Amino acid sequence: MAMELRALFLLPLCFPGLQGQAPEALRLREGDTLYIQCPYAEGTLDYQTKYWCLLKDGKCQELVNTYSKQFSQDRRIKIDDDARTKTFSVTMVALKAEDSGTYFCAIYKSYYDYSRLRTISLIVFRELLQWELDTLTVQCPAGSGAWCRGQADCTALVSRQRSSKQSEIKSQRDRVTMQYHAQGPLVTMKNLQIQDSGVYWCAPGDSRHTQKMEVVLSVFRRTQKLTAKESGTVSVQCHYKIADYSTASKAWCKREEGKTCSVLATTRSESPAANSTAREGVRIQDDTQQGIVTVTMEQLQVQDSGVFWCALQDGSGLLRMEEVTLSVSKALPRGGFPDSGSQSQDDLLGDSCSGNTFLVLSVVLLLLLLLALLICIALGVRYYRLLLRTGVREAEDTSDRAEGTAQPGSPGRRESSQDDSKGPAYINLDVQSPPSPEDPLYCNVELSQAPRNPQHVEYAIIAFNPPPRAGRE
């Protein structure tokens, strides 16, 4: 960072009129696109060449310009000039971590004389996602001499020693190494753990405040969740890379809050470590041919619930391979209710009653539905039969009326004269029982046949339409 600040300090001396301009900081992910617009003054001539420069050793390293933009060495960089808006734009696609640096857009005035318009401090970080126990390999740019961790200040995990002629320098942590090559040092981090997540960067050997390449590392743990019943058995399988860890010792430990992971079983032939709490019923087997560690726990108890690790076991301690969360629940005895260790019998009885009540209500509703269906069917059949009976009676009444009955219930019949058109119609009534003098008699008679002084007179007029005649003879 100091060299970069010194270069920025020399800019006003190399490029007049740059005083008071501070670089804009941009932070982009590898693979993103950088788009910059650089407006220029109205008096700028159209033929004046516009440049996109990388600040290097206090000078402009020309990357692309509007005069020979088609001859740009890096095809990822394009420049366009809009004379109407007095603005030229720069686009950098498919950014790489090696593109990090200080850039500026400028207008050429004379020999080695540029008028800078806008300065960009660009950081392109490489985002890496790894699993625990994976190996991270990073190729640093040429000129790098240290592998640092931290957002601003460098905490060197490994660095190149000027007085050393070794080609490989190991840090205090054996998991981080640096190998030096012509194209730049190669950094390797083994046995990654979740706490290794963070920001790393390559720095020059003489200045650990200048970032040459930044890496954002995220390490994820492999997890499993298992459930089991009390007095039962659970089996767990953990996978590993055969080439890296087939010869390493494996362990099964339980993680306690605020404590180290207590070893319950190990593949070591010697006695367990000092923090071991090995107990009966826990077995561990290592299949080095397939890279699988199998752990079996028998006669489980509720207190066995917790967080466990499949881990590598070496001199520095335990390195987690996978994290297993185990939940052991109480088993129901033959009576159907557990003891009052974790849940009261009343609570369990209430839960059971709630389930039984729901079942009973469901059965009752089903029976009511079936009963209602049967009632509807019975009513439908009865109504159908009633309709049939009504139809028969109507048919009988119709036949009786067709015979000329004058009074309902009377067995009279209609007789007509041979020629209905010549006179009134007559109705003969055959009364089976002698009528009472008080009963009215209905008939149509000639006026001459009517009694002189009738006591009761009731009138009835019966008209019949003449039947159609087939024809006249």
Layout: helices, strands, pairs:
Layout: H1 2-14, E1 24-29, E2 34-39, E3 50-56, E4 59-65, E5 77-82, E6 87-92, E7 101-110, E8 113-131, E9 136-139, E10 144-149, E11 155-159, E12 168-170, E13 176-179, E14 186-189, E15 198-204, E16 213-220, E17 222-229, E18 234-239, H2 242-245, E19 249-255, E20 261-266, E21 282-287, E22 292-297, E23 306-314, E24 317-329, H3 345-402, E25 413-414, E26 427-428
Parallel strand pairs: 1-8, 8-16, 17-24
Antiparallel strand pairs: 2-6, 3-4, 3-7, 5-6, 7-8, 9-14, 10-11, 10-15, 12-13, 13-14, 15-16, 18-22, 19-20, 19-23, 21-22, 23-24, 25-26
Structure commentary:
Strands 1, 3, 4, 7, 8, 10, 11, 15 and 16 form a nine-stranded mixed beta sheet that branches. A five-stranded mixed beta sheet has the order 17-24-23-19-20, with no helix packed on it. The protein is α+β, with helices and mostly antiparallel strands and 473 residues long. It is flat and about 155 Å long. Strand 21 and strand 22 (292-297) form a beta hairpin. It has three helices and 26 strands. The longest helix has 58 residues, at 345-402. Among the domains are: 2-124, Immunoglobulin-like; 132-220, Immunoglobulins (Immunoglobulin-like), CATH 2.60.40.10; 222-329, Immunoglobulins (Immunoglobulin-like, Sandwich), CATH 2.60.40.
